[in-house]
Amino acid sequence: MRYVAHVPLIGGFAIANQNITKTPPVAVTSYSPFTPNDNLYLNYLRKKNPNQNIPYFLIDKWEENKIRDIQHLIGKIDFASAIPPCSGLSLAGNLKAGARKNSPVNDWMIKSAEFMMGILRPTVYVFENAPGLYTDVGENVRNQIMEIARYHGYAGTFYKTDTLLHGIPQRRPRTYTILHKGDYAPILEYFRKDAPTVIEYLKQIPTNSTLQDQYATKEPFINDFEIVRYLKEKIGGNWRQEIINTKDHLCSYGFLLRNNLLEDFQKFVDNDPKAHPTTKRDIAHIIKKLNMGKSYRLSHRVLLLDKNYVYAVIGELMERNIHPTEDRRMNIREYMHLMGMPHDFDVEPKDFGKIPQNCPVKTNEFITKEVIAIIEGKRSFSSQRFEMQNNIKWDGRKSKKLF
Fold first, then answer.
1. Of 82, 248, 347, 369, which has the fewest beta carbons less than 10 angstroms from its beta carbon?
2. pTM (2 decimals)?
């Protein structure tokens, strides 16, 4: 299989492609704003393939005549995978319906579709994006993608799935768009693989892996936090279990609220000579806001606990998630593992925030297998040009259902 990695960012999709095909991409294409992210993948790619010169093309830096640089690839690629930034659909819910279609934050998705189907013309172009692409919020963007695909002779399927269904304990719903040369949409398999619990999954990390002493927060250890000392005094050593018994996914202040302990915690903090001034302000702020019937938002020493799986790894939660058994936040290697990244993939502290700008490798391996099966003629096709499949709502039966 000859493939191109387009806008790979940190590399979750491209690494999955190589894991399945056992070969590196013939080229990497992208746009200059994403070079700092792409370099994380490119460094790893060169590390794993030291004897191969894999070109990296920045499309937006080309002049018209430089299309010759990729002339040998045009129409001769089996597939191309991409992770065009999806902030547009993350923000689209806050835009008026008429503004969503032309929101500039969706431009990279549209530009990528035009480049791939209009110029490079692989047999399959597949890209990953936000769950919103599958919903009403993403309707205008879907329509643009379908218009581009129809014009260039492609048909496609929008496939919604969740990393939790692919063997990693992370709830991360995403939408994959699979665009195939032809007139009819390909039909993908439905898939469900039970994920281990977070405790079991984190034990898979080799003891000699790097980044296990690196964190996305300045306060990785929680023993001295007021909330931890309070809960240990109030509940005992089993305080974690009490929180996740209340709700599978719950933050420390949420637990206090559900159990009418906010004012009791305030008294504890006010009488604690070691209490951090910010904690004192925060608990007073929460009580004031709730008495006004308003919500609140905090970041200082907020702890987030999960029972069997974590919610989507994003920058904000990387500063809140605590280890399921140890009195500390999760470390960077644990977050990398939750994204399915190889244990020999390293990042510098300045790049920790790029880890969530990715899609988990295991989910992408499944999609890569499906793309190859489509190319090899092992999947059926719809009678329609475009289809939508929802793997999250699949009930486990072998019969295909389109949603």
1. 248
2. 0.92
